[in-house]
Amino acid sequence: MNWDDVRIFLAIARAGQILGAAKRLGLNHTTVARRLTALEETLSATLIARSTSGSSLTQAGEEFFLAAERMEAEMLSARAAIGNSDISISGTVRIGAPDGFGVNFLAPRLAKITSQYPELTIQLVPVPRSFSLSRRETDIAITVERPDQGRLVARKLVDYSLGLYAHKDYIAQYGAPSTTDDLADHRLIGYVDDLVVNASLAYAPEISRDWKPDFEVSSALGQFEAVKAGAGIGILHAFIAREETCLIPIMPEKTIKRAYWLAYHESARSLRRVTAVASLISELVENERKLFH
C-alpha cells in the first residue's frame, strides 16, 4: 500500500470533496482522483462515494479512515523521532474560533505570530459552528467548552464574562432598566435561537427566563454592532463591550460566566507549526488575561 495514496485519501475525507483536497495538497484534481482510485483498487473496496455536490465516506471508507489516521499518527511520530518534522516551522495552520474571540481578540494580534514565524501562513476561520479536528477541518480549535470527544489535546485558555449593555443614547431616550422585569419594556437584541450550535451559547435564560428579543442576530459581533448602533439592549462579551465608551453596562450584577478552550488533535503533537501556534495563542491570552475579567 502506497502511503501517499493513503495521505490523499485522508485529505479527501477531511475536505469532503476531491477538488478541495487537491487545492490543499497542491496537486492536480485529476491526479488526486487517480490516486484515490489506485488505493481503492489495492483494497478492493470503494472508500469514497463521489457526486457532483461533493464526496462522502462509504461504510468501508469510515472503517479505513480510522486505520488511516492511526497510520498518519505513526508516520508523524516517526518523523519527529528522527528529527525531520517541521524543522523550520513553516506551512499552514488553520485556526477555527468563535467570532468574538477570533475577530475581536485574535485577528488584531496575528501579526505577533507571523512576525515570529515568517514562513508560516495562518488561516483564521471565525465562524460559530463546531469543527472536526479529527477530519482536519481545522488544525487548532478555540471552543467555549472543553472538548470531550476524540483524541484531543485540550487546555483552558481563560474565563470570560457576558453582561447587559446599551448605547448611552438609547439609555438617554428610554431609560435604564433596574430589574429583569423591566426588560419587557425595552427593545432587546439577541441570538437566533435555532442557529445556536452549542448549548452553552444559549445563555439568555441566565439573565431572564422571559428574554424575548425584538432583533435577532446569529453572530456575537453582529449583536455587538446592533447594540452599538443604539438598536436596544443586548447581552455582549464584556471584553468587547468595555472597549466602547459609548456602551453602558446595565444591571452589572447580572453576569454570565463562560470559558475559552484551545484544542488540537493528538496526532498533531509532533507538528511543531501547530504546537508553536497553540503556545503563542496561550501566551497572547495570558499576557492580557485582565482584559477578559
Mind explaining what this structure looks like?
- The chain has 293 residues and is α/β, with parallel strands linked by helices.
- The protein has three domains: 3-81, Winged helix-like DNA-binding domain superfamily/Winged helix DNA-binding domain (Arc Repressor Mutant, subunit A, Orthogonal Bundle); 91-158 and 259-292, D-Maltodextrin-Binding Protein, domain 2 (3-Layer(aba) Sandwich), CATH 3.40.190; 159-258, 3-Layer(aba) Sandwich (D-Maltodextrin-Binding Protein, domain 2), CATH 3.40.190.10.
- The protein is 38% helix and 22% strand.
- The protein contains ten helices and eleven strands.
- It has helices at 3-15, 18-25, 29-43, 59-81, 99-106, 110-116, 168-174, 220-228, 238-241, 272-287, and strands at residues 48-51, 54-57, 91-96, 120-125, 140-143, 152-167, 188-190, 215-216, 233-237, 247-250, 256-265.
- Strands 3, 4, 5, 6, 7, 8, 9, 10 and 11 form a nine-stranded mixed β-sheet that branches. Strands 1-2 form a two-stranded antiparallel ribbon.
- Strand 1 and strand 2 form a beta hairpin.
- Helix 1 (3-15) crosses helix 2 (18-25), helix 1 packs across helix 4 (59-81) and helix 2 crosses helix 3 (29-43).
- The longest helix is centred in the first third of the chain and has 23 residues, at 59-81.
- The protein is elongated, with a radius of gyration of 23 Å.
